[in-house]
Design brief:
single chain; about 130 residues; three-stranded antiparallel β-sheet; 2 domains; Dna Ligase, domain 1; globular; Ribosomal Protein S8, Chain: A, domain 1
């Protein structure tokens, strides 16, 4: 399965679990999405994940002290029939306010907009996490 398809399948599971105030959600796991999960941990959107089996993991969702989810907005950009390729110079213009984190699929692999801008690499927009 393609990396973008795997991430697009993961995002609705997270959104649905947060609407139902679940602390843990089981997901289909593979090493390709591991870096995406680590970005969510580094940015403070999830508490972590535990690999149960080679193909299954549990995400530990994060909520604030008032019970609101740490991920307020989770928007997919990448679809099978639609490309949202962005040049490195445009990354700063797309995320002017620095609210949230853009996730990109680049030639260097999956990365955030902050890192891609620093390294001057463009890529395909995958998701916005806020």
């Amino acid at each position: 399965m393609h990396l973008i398809s795997q991430i697009n399948a993961l995002l609705p599971l997270i959104i649905h679990a947060q609407k139902n105030k679940k602390l843990i959600v089981k997901i289909h796991y593979c090493f390709k999405i591991e870096k995406f999960l680590y970005f969510l941990i580094e940015e403070g959107f999830i508490n972590g994940f535990t690999v149960i089996r080679p193909w299954q993991a549990c995400l530990h969702l994060k909520y604030d002290r008032y019970g609101k989810p740490a991920i307020r907005i989770l928007k997919k950009f990448a679809f099978q029939n639609m490309n949202k390729n962005v040049k490195a110079e445009r990354l700063d213009h797309i995320n002017k306010t620095r609210i949230g984190t853009l996730i990109l699929n680049t030639s260097w692999g999956i990365t955030t907009d902050h890192y891609a801008y620093q390294k001057h690499i463009g890529g395909r927009l995958v998701a916005l996490v806020y």
